[in-house]
Amino acid sequence: MTFSIVTPDLAIDLGTANTLIAMKGKGIALNEPSIVAFDRNTKKIVALGHAAREMLGRTHQDIRTIRPMKDGVIADFEIAEGMLREFIKKINAGWLPARRIVISVPSGVTEVEKRAVRDSAEHAGAKEVHLIAEPMAAAIGIGLDVDAPVGNMVVNIGGGTTEFAVIAMSGIVSSSSLV
User: Fold this and answer.
1) CA 149 to CA 170: how far, in whole Å?
2) Does residue 87 sit in helix, strand or coil?
């Protein structure tokens, strides 16, 4: 067993339907439904991901099961933060939290929504948080030359939103989102 003081960088797709977390050098480390079951009285998380999905419609009155993301953005800040923290803990066997995290966000989100995502990641333990528009992350992920002076259209189909974007010269030239 090797011990490393360096914590891995993470990339997170905090989606309406599923959350994916990729770890630098390892690929996708987590792919779970963005669902949380929590105690209504204490707001303590009881289950999340696959376990919470199994609980849908099968809990007593004190347990509530929700999707804290709606249309690609945080709908319940406190629960989303807890979900993010628990997902990061689940993949991070070390005792140090991830230092740097990149999180994809829909291209049309407001500054308030961006702040909510950034705050959630910081409260989950991230030291450095970078946000990237989902179409740009998708383009980079499939290997498009986003620096080229040529327009490339990217369609990102998610559980809550579908985004269309034309990318050229390291930026989004035009984008649209369907909810």
Assistant:
1) 9
2) helix
Asked if 36 and 65 count as a contact pair (C-beta separation under 8 A), the reply is yes
pLDDT of residue 3: 47
Contact 32, 98 (CB under 8 A): no
Is residue 158 within 8 Å of 67, Cβ to Cβ?
no
Residue 78 in tokens: 């406190």
The tokens describing 93, both together, are 């066997």
Nearest to 146 by CA among 159, 130, 132: 132
> From the centroid of its chain, how far is CA 121?
9
Residue-level pLDDT at 1: 42
- Is the Cβ–Cβ distance between 112 and 73 less than 8 Å? no
Residue range 157-170, pLDDT digits in tens: 988 888 999 999 99
d(CA 105, CA 114): 8
Whole-angstrom CA distances from 88 to 39, 63, 177 are 21, 23, 28
Q: Which residue has the tokens 């004190």?
A: 62
